[in-house]
Amino acid sequence: MTETQEEWIKKRAYALWEEEGRQSGRDHIHWEQAKRERAALEGSAASVDGKEVKNRAKRAASAPKSNGAAKDVPKTEAKRGSVRKSA
Asked: I need a labelling partner for 35 at 20 to 30 A (CA). Which of 13, 59, 69, 78 fits?
């Protein structure tokens, strides 16, 4: 079962509280730190549980390569009839 973002934050905040000696009154600080850590994980190449880190080179190799240059498109020889207006 996949845990939700809020469940992950809750577990991480609890772990932070335990790491700091279970001091009372710092729950908001732990929650905010856990939220920041989750956001950082989501923006990185790491999996949410932190167990897997995708190699950026592998991700880039699987993506289509484009250097931003326009592709050569064959020009058609067909011309559209032009309408001339007489002055």
From this structure: 59
Query: Across all residues in the chain, what is the average pLDDT?
Result: 74
Q: Give residue 58's pLDDT.
A: 47
CA dihedral over 22, 24, 26, 28, signed as positive or negative: positive
Alpha helices in the chain (DSSP H): 5-19, 27-42, 56-62
- pTM here is 0.51
For residues 31 and 17, give the distance between their C-alpha atoms in angstroms, rounded to a whole number. Answer: 9
Phi, psi for 65 (deg, rounded to 5): -85, 130
